[in-house]
Design a protein that fits this description.
about 120 residues, about 45% helix, Histidine-containing Protein, Chain: A, single chain
Length: about 120
């Protein structure tokens, strides 16, 4: 007969520890996981919104989404278009944040200046 204190001090079998660890990992990562197709959907919807905006030429902007964070790149012709691109991206379901790295560039050809010479 084993001593009651010795029975309490005995460790659970390794299988129980392994299962407990796997359960803990599954719960921890399951809460933070996202649908892998979610970012592809977000990118497509942001691009569609940019293309649908007929009064602004936003079709050449780059759009990348990672974990709901949308990164916009490329060039626009005015600060208003830059703001509009960010606003359109923010309106898409699932977007958590927008990083707007678009550059505002004049629509004049290179080497020309609007000032008279």
């Amino acid at each position: 007969m084993s001593h009651p204190v010795a029975r309490l001090a005995r460790r659970p079998p390794p299988l129980q520890w392994t299962l407990a660890a796997l359960l803990l990992i599954a719960v921890a990562t399951g809460c933070a996981s996202r649908d892998p197709w979610e970012d592809a959907r977000i990118e497509s919807e942001v691009k569609a919104s940019l293309v649908a905006k007929k009064d602004a030429d936003l079709t050449r902007l780059g759009v990348v989404s990672r974990k709901g964070i949308v990164h916009l790149t490329g060039a626009v012709s005015s600060p208003e278009q830059k703001e509009e691109a960010a606003a359109l991206a923010k309106d898409v379901r699932g977007v958590r944040r927008v990083i707007n790295d678009t550059a505002v560039r004049s629509s004049e050809p290179p080497g020309r200046s609007s000032r008279s010479r």
